[in-house]
Amino acid sequence: MLTRKQSELLDYLTTHLATHDVPPSFDEMRNALGLASKSGIHRLVSGLEERGYIRRLPNRARAIEILRPAGEPSAMANAVAAAADIIALPFLGRIAAGTPIEALSDPTRQLEVPASMIGNGEHFALEIVGDSMIDAGILEGDTVVIERANTASHGEIIVALINKQEATLKTLLKEPGRIGLEAANPQYETRYFSTDAVEVQGKLAGLIRNY
Length: 211
Known about the structure:
Blueprint: H1 4-20, H2 26-33, H3 38-50, E1 54-56, E2 64-66, H4 75-84, E3 86-96, E4 101-102, E5 110-114, E6 123-129, E7 143-148, E8 157-162, E9 166-175, E10 178-182, E11 191-193, E12 198-208
Parallel strand pairs: 3-6
Antiparallel strand pairs: 1-2, 3-5, 4-9, 6-7, 7-12, 8-9, 8-12, 9-10, 10-11
């Protein structure tokens, strides 16, 4: 971000170049900004150059090139803004969308996703193994983004932990006295468990597919 005087100087340089086709002298810059000495102009010019707004060409008088006008973000600012739009999620391993497999956890791996893909709350990523959710558009090799949660509504796609050792991705069915985990593939039967045998670990929030 430029100071007021830096912005004034950049505006003056831009206007002078557009009008006269040559940069102003240091005395002209000093007079235009109402400064008492050239040293103040030198500091302002150096500040603009450090921030990527101008470039001074060596061994040439009045050799100042405008790289970008005032108000245009710098490359560094663009990089920071782009980074702000990316979220690194823990990649916790693979999860079955077929026969349940042992829950895996590898917090050292991460997956970068657009911030717009997720909402509030804590999220993590898992790789899908199996084909039991293909009718829901979830294929083997896909990466699912999961919002951490310990409760879910009937009909939501969840990560379920069965008997504290098997993890699977299924549609949650809530019935009196029991929990159903329903596949999205007619080749797999819905499995039923006592309510205390199934823990909700999270809810499906997004999907990433590599082609």
